[in-house]
Amino acid sequence: MRMTPVVPLIAALLSPSPVAAAQTRSDQLLWAARQHISTHQLDSAEAELRSALDLAPYQIDSSYVIVWRGVLEYLRGRDSLARASFREAAHLNGRISPPGLDQISPDLANVFDAEMRALRVYSGLGLEQPPKRLAGPAIVYPPDLRRRGVSGRATVSIVIDTLGNVEPASLQIMETPDADFVAPLTRMMLATTFTPGRTGGHPVRSSVILSIELTPPAAPPLSATQLSSAARTQLAARRPDSALALVTTALDPATSATPGERVYALLVQGLVLKKLGKESLASAAFDSATAGYRDLTARGVDLAPFLRRLADSVRMSRRRSSPAAASGLGAPSATGVDQQPALVAHPPIRYAPEMQALRIGGTLIVEATLDTTGHVVPTSVKIVQSPNPAFNDEARRVVLAATYRPARQGGKAVRTVIRQPITFAPY
């Protein structure tokens, strides 16, 4: 337990007598508690502080009682409880500054000041050293605003913490030439780091209002391929918003992308949208890229190796993330039934690596007998159409492991022969 000499305490704690009639009962109890603290009668002081807190008429009165509760805990050697009390008082009264703590103990005053610095927000003349920008991205200019040449001044209010980061809840866009700037300004500010403001030689939370001039960037003399490659670089650097702006420019009609460049840009756009969590938009971009890729390969266009690799990587990634959508199993069919069978589940197709490398694909037709429980009779499986024998064993394995909703005739499940198409796509 920490012990503090009594005489300095008396000098520090006994200021003008609180017997004036204007004082509340809470004030009187707080004064009595401070006297008992000065004579180290800590149990009596604790009871009086508890009563004073119950009777405190206003929040500011409660804050001073809680501060002295912190002093009491400090004198009992309970530093963590003292700090908790100081923080609670600061939340109630951000400008609280009880006199005499340094006379009780310099360490006590330092503890109180440290907790206040962590919670109080300083600004203007309260800062001996204002924060300065260290690093951060440039604003991603919205393509539509860039094309229209929208410019002007934005005003942003932020609170910078003691580590130099912007506190997200504090960020306010106070002025902007166009509402479409709000989102990119917010992303830019949250990614920016500062030197923290300082007072008394210590880093503190600081309130800052910034004025930012917004000027459309000059159109970069880059091709659609260069823009898409730059977008991939930004994506690898975990800047998906910057990547999206670049690839959007690559797909802009003004950029005059070739069909191959457009496929490349769509693939990159899909990757960026997926990173941003926009799955449906990513899927649409990938589907458009795949359609364009098929068209180019069907016309015998010799595509660049990096584009072929990227297309293969996207295709494999989509197959792993959604095997049902990318598996290539079509709807089964049967004859002579009222209700067709339906595929319920199946294992992922394993595309032979050598066939992928040779870019060989095609659709097989597997014929098999389906029983009334929706399972394939093992001895009934046969390949009736195949583009390449290398696919046959895998097709048999997939069909045998698949489960179906059985065909129905007259409302009852019936045994029937089905035909199951399976497509191996070389893209």
The overall pLDDT average reads: 84
Strand content: 15-25%
Overall helicity: 40-55%
* Rough outline: elongated
**Structural class assignment:** alpha+beta
Q: What features would you describe in this structure?
A:
Helices cover 46% and strands 17% of the residues. It has 427 residues and is α+β, with helices and mostly antiparallel strands. The strands form five sheets. Strands 1, 3, 4, 6 and 7 form a five-stranded mixed β-sheet that branches. A three-stranded antiparallel β-sheet has the order 10-9-14, with helices on one face. The chain has a two-stranded antiparallel sheet with strand order 2-5. Helix 4 (59-75) runs antiparallel to helix 5 (79-92) and helix 12 runs parallel beside helix 14 (305-321). The longest helix is centred in the last third of the chain and has 20 residues, at 279-298.
Describe the structure in brief.
This protein has helices spanning 6-13, 25-38, 42-55, 59-75, 79-92, 101-104, 106-119, 143-148, 182-190, 224-236, 240-251, 259-275, 279-298, 305-321, 323-326, 353-357, 392-401; strands at residues 121-122, 132-135, 152-160, 172-175, 193-195, 197-199, 202-214, 342-345, 362-370, 382-385, 403-405, 408-409, 412-413, 416-424. It has 427 residues and is an alpha+beta fold. α1 (6-13) runs antiparallel to α2 (25-38) and α10 packs antiparallel against α11 (240-251).
